[in-house]
Amino acid sequence: MAITGVLRPGHAQIRVLDLEESVKWYTDVMGLKPMGRDAQGRAYFKTRAERDHNSVVLRQADQAGLDFFGFKVLDKATLDDLEQKLQAFGVKTERIPAGEMLETGERVRFNVPTGHTIELYAEKTNVGNATGCLNPEVDVIDTPGITPIRMDHCLLYGGDLDGTKELFEKVLGFNLVERVKLEDGKTDLGIWLTCSAKAHDIAFVRHAEDSKLHHVSFQLSSWEQVLRAADIMSKNRVSIDVSPTRHGVTNGTTIYFFDPSGNRLETFCGGYDHYPDMEPITWTWDEVGAGIFYHNRKLNDAFLSVVT
Amino acid sequence: MAITGVLRPGHAQIRVLDLEESVKWYTDVMGLKPMGRDAQGRAYFKTRAERDHNSVVLRQADQAGLDFFGFKVLDKATLDDLEQKLQAFGVKTERIPAGEMLETGERVRFNVPTGHTIELYAEKTNVGNATGCLNPEVDVIDTPGITPIRMDHCLLYGGDLDGTKELFEKVLGFNLVERVKLEDGKTDLGIWLTCSAKAHDIAFVRHAEDSKLHHVSFQLSSWEQVLRAADIMSKNRVSIDVSPTRHGVTNGTTIYFFDPSGNRLETFCGGYDHYPDMEPITWTWDEVGAGIFYHNRKLNDAFLSVVT
Amino acid sequence: MAITGVLRPGHAQIRVLDLEESVKWYTDVMGLKPMGRDAQGRAYFKTRAERDHNSVVLRQADQAGLDFFGFKVLDKATLDDLEQKLQAFGVKTERIPAGEMLETGERVRFNVPTGHTIELYAEKTNVGNATGCLNPEVDVIDTPGITPIRMDHCLLYGGDLDGTKELFEKVLGFNLVERVKLEDGKTDLGIWLTCSAKAHDIAFVRHAEDSKLHHVSFQLSSWEQVLRAADIMSKNRVSIDVSPTRHGVTNGTTIYFFDPSGNRLETFCGGYDHYPDMEPITWTWDEVGAGIFYHNRKLNDAFLSVVT
Amino acid sequence: MAITGVLRPGHAQIRVLDLEESVKWYTDVMGLKPMGRDAQGRAYFKTRAERDHNSVVLRQADQAGLDFFGFKVLDKATLDDLEQKLQAFGVKTERIPAGEMLETGERVRFNVPTGHTIELYAEKTNVGNATGCLNPEVDVIDTPGITPIRMDHCLLYGGDLDGTKELFEKVLGFNLVERVKLEDGKTDLGIWLTCSAKAHDIAFVRHAEDSKLHHVSFQLSSWEQVLRAADIMSKNRVSIDVSPTRHGVTNGTTIYFFDPSGNRLETFCGGYDHYPDMEPITWTWDEVGAGIFYHNRKLNDAFLSVVT
């Protein structure tokens, strides 16, 4: 098959400080569709366009951050195969039973060298999107909230970037799309990886502390929708980290902002397609500013320091 | 690997009635970059954003149409493997030697049941895109011509749709994304297939005559670029078949128009991502109009009849 | 003062065949805000962005069409002055008492040579727009319906185009912005007139029958909003006359479509600013197609024949 | 007439530190059309869409800033009338002879209470825009540079805001569209004025020092053109003050950036229409941040301090 193995980002479990406030915010401001709560009290969401039951899970906790980030794989045989490969690579894996998350099959959970918990799973109930699979109408945005297309990717911060890169490339079949180099011209400061033809399905930045979340990103359909998202944020007094601009890396347009718990989120549009025969793009240290924020060509203080 | 086998559409060889006029038109109106001519007199083009040496090849002939459509595969081992699978499936294959097309490696050529000639190849010289792989600037459109991002897909007309569908799915690993049914509710009138996560890499419509081209499509970055393309077409007196509108199938926005030889081309933007775990979308016969042209909800006469 | 006399189009009274169906349609599909009904049973609407109480009035009748089109003038002194000038020009005027239309002051009504009833008025209650005049938020579109910015202009059909042109220019102070000539190169087929710096506040086309409505137009903010409008129309099975395209005249982007009674409406975006020192643009008969529909460069049959 | 008196901003004479460098920059980066130089060595420019001979004049000087800002008035009788009214209001006026600026008629020059030099003129040679007045094609942007539609307005800083406001309203017939109040809730910090139906033709901010320029603004056609402008700026290493965002005041989208001499310029899109019957919008001191930069809801340091 032409696309196989790991398919795409499937779910992100985010820790929030006040669940009820957060449920309201992810519903009203983000425009996500609430999909119910489980016995542990976790709240589930999907976008209007996503077909699987959930993509964002909120868990009340004392500290914001990301519990885990899950990828859907092609099928159960792929799940077994990837678990075996992980173990052969020396990664300890854990099986989370089907049903532990709502409408989600068995998950293979493991930690990557940057400390983050990653999951693979093959099954999540297809509940269909807002328009269905038979003579679908176009899904016009006509409700409050940002209403992204999908939960798209995340950017994670941690120490052993090289180890995580090796694991994603060699075991999970991801390809390197872009990277930013440190002053030495050799060490990677940041890496952007894809498991499909997207400009990124996950990214990592080298950081003193492990297991940190920089942002979870949601896809929008156009630069005008990026503007609409920023207008909605302002109207709702959302704390905006970086207002509409373009990334040099991926060429995508972006807004960085914070949920009520201080988790950074992104609304993102564009980005070129990357295929495995393509050479990765490299950004040198002196141009890292343009790589991250193309218009201002400099990092803001928060980009390298504020994480959850 | 997560993406493997057949990667993407790589080249389309189009027959034109007047080569010099066509070279000028594909350069000035389409905004493609001329990449030279070969000993046979064929003219090669790529877009600014494409990295491989060529994607459109024009050959002078007495009749317009498509000579062949080629897909790039992951590597030479994949090429050998797919050739073997084609032969095992009963498909006769031919090896075209490296260099027969400019800067292109050995190709495996075969006919599909609808009569079209398809090629697979693993190597085409990476000449880089307009911005390169080191600290790239954003590539601003600032030259005449439509300037698409890439040669994106084609739609072909022929008789044995079922046979071609089976070959693309079973041998080449393509997935069915959408289909339109005939009045009987069973027979496919049209099928849209992907080898990656795009809404289509190739499509076929059932037609009395084999080996016909409906259109070759070029990707644009936004609905505003679709408008700019239509303005450029009008200014250059390009014959427009269908002015800017949206497809129900794929949700993409589109213009259909004709090159000076009468080959239909498309400029296309958008389209959702399709993964192999997703159920295909089905359009019934009574809604085929909305499937093809979402706004007017009816086919124009040319759609089903005018092919080259 | 820099802008004086006639300010802008203020209201259009449209005849509909089924009032209740029409009220629902203008609310749900057009996204207008219902503003109440009067003793005669007429239904009033405004857009979210308009500040005056109403801009669209629907009246149940046996035949579709336009009862009258009203312009707001600067103040009551201007109203008196313009009435006097109309009478001096030989135009019979009628005073409609304040309150005959909801929240609307006294109107001066008269017929123009093409047979249409035009009104001038100085007062309509300022009920404010959706965001107010104190620290207003941006008004994000987040409800169903097309949600135009304002009722923008109309295009009317009738016989004595020259007489109407003279009246609007000489008495009401309008300026000619563009015109289309007939085959003789002299006679005007169509004229576009402005009372401000817009590309058109009203337009007329020469036609065998007097007093006809070609369309009432509503302004949208962007080409993407034009696409959204077309999507909403298709989803609601609105009869579309001309799907998204660009006019050569005014350069605006457009959709022509019909309300449930067969009145043609337009959603319109763009158009350059015209000042009184600027020479009008002229379209010759052989280029009238490009003038009206820039992409296809030809008129559709309906444009010259279907009116209400 | 419906629009009379002062028509629109016509020319801005800007001081630059290195004329040759600036001519190159306004041509290549701004995408303005060079229109020649006069005997004094001043360099003239217009946009592709402007019909009058020039709108931007560059003069080499030791210090950046604005020499004067000129408005075109309806005709010579208006010019005489407005000069008389200025003198009656106690404003000293000066006549600059026709031809002192290239292709420009006699100008009436005067100073306003904030110290700025303003000019009125009735004549500037109509050289036509890029597409002409007979069967014009749409003007597709296909050249390097930002390529704005027109020189649109300016924002000036000075002390006696109240005096300048009175002069523009009472003598020149401008209308107040929006204002920002100081902490006392009474004093205007900033005022936005129009002579037509635009959201602003000129604006002023209260400032300790007189005669200062905050920015000269150029109009773009869409939010996507704002993005293209920002990309061009980055590619050309233009110093960007504020990257793409939205103003609360006027609702327009914007970029603030600096020419090579440190003069702040703006590329601007949108803004609602204002008519003289409309109440001005007021921003209170606590919401001034949202008024100026709607997304971040706070002023950057440069906005109130950096002027030329």
From TrEMBL, chains A, B, C, D:
Q: Recorded E.C. number(s)?
A: 1.13.11.2
Organism's domain of life?
Answer: Bacteria
Q: How does it assemble?
A: Homotetramer.
By its UniProt entry, which PROSITE patterns does this protein fall under? EXTRADIOL_DIOXYGENAS, VOC
Asked if the record carries the keyword Hydrolase, the reply is no
Q: Which enzyme type, at the first EC level?
A: oxidoreductase
- Which Gene Ontology MF annotations are present? catechol 2,3-dioxygenase activity; ferrous iron binding
- Stretches assigned to the VOC domain: 8-123, 150-270
Q: Which organism is it from?
A: Comamonas denitrificans
Q: Which family does it belong to?
A: Belongs to the extradiol ring-cleavage dioxygenase family.
Residues spanning the membrane: none
Record keywords: Aromatic hydrocarbons catabolism, Dioxygenase, Iron, Metal-binding, Oxidoreductase, Repeat
What protein does this entry describe? Metapyrocatechase
Which catalysed reactions does the entry list for this protein? catechol + O2 = (2Z,4E)-2-hydroxy-6-oxohexa-2,4-dienoate + H(+)
Which co-factor is required? Fe(2+)
